Every structure is written in C-alpha cells, then in structure tokens.
Amino acid sequence: MNRLFSRPRAELVLVGVTILWGSTFVVTKDAVQTIAPLPFLTIRFGAAALLLCALYGRRLRTAGRRAIVDGVVLGLLNSAGLVLQVFGQVYTTVAKSSFITSFNTPLTPLVGWLLYRSRPSGPQRVAVVVATLGLMLLTWPGAGAHFNRGDLLTVGCAVLYAITIVEIARRTPGQDAGLLTAIQVVTAALMFGACLIAARIAIALYAPAHLPEMLRLETRPLVLTHRLCAELAWMAVMCTVVTFAGQTWAMARMSATAAAVTFALEPVFATTMALALGGAAEWPGARGSVGALLVLFAVGISELRARAPRNGANGPGSTLPSGNS
After folding, report:
1. Cα–Cα dist 63/175, whole Å
2. Per the domain annotation, does 319 fall within a domain?
3. Is 71 part of any domain?
4. What angle do CA 163, 168, 172 make, to 5 degrees?
5. 279-325: pLDDT as tens digits
6. Model confidence, pTM
7. 323 part of a folded domain
8. Within 13 Å of residue 131, how many CA atoms lie on the same side as its CB?
9. How far apart are CA 101 and CA 269, in angstroms?
10. What is the span of the domain harbouring residue 131?
11. Which has fewest Cβ within 10 Å: 70, 181, 184, 216?
12. In this predicted structure, which of 52-66, 69-83, 123-137, 179-193 has the lowest mean pLDDT?
C-alpha cells in the first residue's frame, strides 16, 4: 500500500516545490536590480544554512561519509547552476529565463545516457531535438542583434540542472532528506561566500575598467530596504529550506525523468506570475512564444516516456535510475 501511494504523494510535493521555484524567477529578477548577484546568493543561502544547522546540528555532527559526499556533490551542482541563472537574470527576462531553464527536462535522459549509459528511448531523443529547436527560436537574436548573454548563461544553467536531476535521483534513495538538505545548503552557502570573497579581492586589485562585466556588477553598494529584506527572507526560507527538503524527499521516491517532467511546470508558473506583475514587457514575442511552446511540447513527449514504467516496477522501459522506495 505504501508503494502504491508514495509516488503520487511525491509528485504532489514536487509540484508544490515547482510553484515555489516559479516564484524565484520573479523575486530574483526584482532583487538583482538593487543587489549584486553574489551578495544576494550568499545572504540567501547563508541564512538558510544557519536555520538548517539549528534544526539538524546534531545530525550534521554525526553524518556518515556517504551523506557528506552526496550532499556536497549535489550542493556544488545546484549552486553552480544557480550562479549562472542569477547572473543570467540580470540580462534576460523572467519568461525567457524560466523557459530556457526548463530545457533541462529533455536534456535529463540524454545526460543520464552520457553519464551512466541509461539509454534514452525514441520519444526522448525526439524531445531533445524539438526542445533544441524551441530553444533556438526563443534565444536566437534578431537582425543586427547579438546573442543575449543572459540567455547563454541560462542555457549553461539548464545543462547543470539536468546533471543535478540525474545525480539527485541516484544519490537520494535511502538518505535522510533533512540531513542531505542541510549539507547541500551549507555547501552552497560556503561556495557562494568563497566566490564573493574572490570577487571582492579582484575588485580591490583591479580598476573597474579592467574587470569582466559580470564582476563589475559586484561593485554595486548593498542597500538593504524593507522590500529586499522580505525578498531575501522568502528566498531563504520558502525557496531554499522548503524547496530543497521537498525536492530531496520527493526525488527519493520517483525517477529522474518523471521529476524532470514535473519541474517543467516551472516556466508556466513563472511566466504567469511575471505577466501578472510585469505586464507585456515579459512576453517573449511571436517567435519566442513559438519556441516556448515547442519546449513545452518536448516536455510532453518526455512525459510519455516517464509515465511508461508505472505499469511495472521499473521494467524494461525504464531508462533512468529510479528512486522509488
């Protein structure tokens, strides 16, 4: 009976996580207009790490080698993807950022094959082609224009997230979800803190004109307003502690491909919120809209493949490692 109902519960939890993540695009886009990306990430994850250390301090002190290794690997992957995504949002819109990030869905089975030889099915291979075409329509510059660096950074984020999804599905079964979440968030906080220190050293050593543009963003002064503090609190508690714990728990009970399909709802939620708050400026245009629809269509193709193993316990059709318990 527990096996029968564990996966639907896991999918509902992951849908809730995805709704919260949809809100991060809108909140982050607004926040990085007034705070540099690295302080934003450091404060967000530093506050979340302190909260999780208070909750799981005893378990952290007695954590086994497997939990530490898996938590650090997942924390580094997640934080590397977030760096690209947050810097990307300085230059691109909420709608484009969210749809490009969803490219991780069709990429997930491909990454599973490249890393672990989990052979993707025919529909999954078609999904990669369709999603790539959609991504090109969404990001290709118009006549006389150049590629948006924010779009390109977000493509890198999507690749890292696809790797992360595969690794989470392999590493979370049998783990303590709370402990693994705490290790991931502490790892991310330390990584962002180290990046911030390195950026400050570079800024102190070189004149602004000699710094890369992304580092010049870090020279902006930090001014804490009531709005920014509320955004940081939302991102630290709801969109870090709650989402990481929910994702870790749910993905221990479902396959990587099924999880990637649920994550693909993220751009729908994010774009709806962005259009409601930002208006027509967030709409990606006619060609971009076609590209976004193709990405979602590719997600649907992937979903056909993800649902297939439900009739059996990861039978011959299952091509990615399963986290079902």
Report:
1. 11
2. no
3. yes
4. 160
5. 666 666 777 788 878 877 876 776 664 444 433 333 322 223 223 33
6. 0.77
7. no
8. 29
9. 13
10. 2-311
11. 216
12. 123-137
